[in-house]
């Protein structure tokens, strides 16, 4: 019997020691029997769900071979002139790009690495701590999955930093409407009989309907389907219809896969050399993977082109950053040696696409806390307006101590000017996520600030 199931049973029995938990007229024994029956029913539902999924042994090897030849359509992309945008500096008035709406979720957590996506008649909120289901108004409906992580908060200069200890975690989770399943990357520590740690990496699949109806959040103990893969370090992952897409770390290659891990197609988006690190290395750029109007788009690290996945074997270029005479590093140059100077090189640190705008963050030279303090890095926020075709940058910004920071977007709420920089999208709109206590600090006179809890996560969306 599952260890977690036994723990749950023991918890219920202890909990029933209080007579307050029984319905009027129900004996303690009857209440215990009812809750045991409910727990058994949930266990049976999990087993039934597992029977509908593919299961894989620890030594499973996917079918060999690649089914399709790749097609990469490189023409037709909208070209964005980066040098021109850097010269076209524009001071925005508050609410020039939109107004803010605030959505308290009722979910208390940190919201680190959060992503929001539409699912059925609600929203799927994923972060380091797990998976939540929100209703259409972004109110917490239920916690679906809890990761085995420990997060600590600490002060770092004028801001707040976080320490994360991840034992077993499901990340980069997405919903496949064609199969009504969730899929994500699983990384976990397992203790062997001799007390040595074993690390497990897999693509995990969860049945949506059973998970959404579960009485209690699932945990890593409840993963019914795990397809073993190599280490997940450096992999970008996204769910596709009936499978997934995953990049090969430290390279310009990516693959699409079927549900059994069979390779559907393998793409090489550029002729850049691989840059697998051999020693301590800098993490310069990350691969951007996101959904836009239901289509999967991605920009590989150190590449200037955004592609859309048309089908399992076709990529089409949709955006291209033209840096002109400005210097761009390769992954091999950045990762190859800490002695390789990045002074004067431009790196893409963030790419967010909404229905109306592109929001791009660039750094000139390598960005780090020391570089900001020493003034050896310049940070740029670029905005492209899809309606007007305007591509411009915001004025440079420094904090109270004179260190460079990214320029935020200006807004006015209840007569008070504030600035924010979106970190995700929600339904085609730029958004960010923070705790209620930060909302109270920023906008103490906002009526919502008097109602929201300090630890409650609030979705702030640009309308």
3D architecture notes:
InterPro entries: DUF4933 (IPR032559). It comes from Mediterranea massiliensis. The chain is mainly beta and 463 residues long. It has 2 domains: 1-51; 52-462, no CATH class. Helix content is 15%, strand content 43%. The chain contains 7 helices and 31 strands. The protein has helices spanning 3-15, 28-51, 82-87, 208-213, 331-336, 369-374, 436-442, and strands at 71-73, 78-81, 100-108, 115-119, 122-127, 130-134, 140-146, 148-156, 159-176, 181-191, 197-207, 225-228, 237-240, 243-247, 253-258, 263-268, 288-292, 295-299, 305-311, 314-322, 346-353, 357-364, 378-385, 391-393, 397-398, 404-405, 409-413, 416-420, 424-426, 429-435, 456-462. Strands 1, 2, 17, 18, 19 and 20 form a 6-stranded mixed beta sheet that branches. Helix 1 packs antiparallel against helix 2. The longest helix is centred in the N-terminal third of the chain and has 24 residues, at 28-51. The relative contact order is 0.14.
Number of domains: 2
Distance between the termini: 50 Å
Low-confidence stretches: 1-22
Count of helical segments? Answer: 7
Query: How much is the radius of gyration in Å?
Result: 24 Å
Shape: globular
Task: Find the structural class using helix and strand composition.
Answer: mainly beta
Average pLDDT level: 87
DSSP strand tally:
31
Jot down its keywords.
463 residues, mainly beta, 6-stranded mixed sheet, 5-stranded antiparallel sheet, disordered N terminus
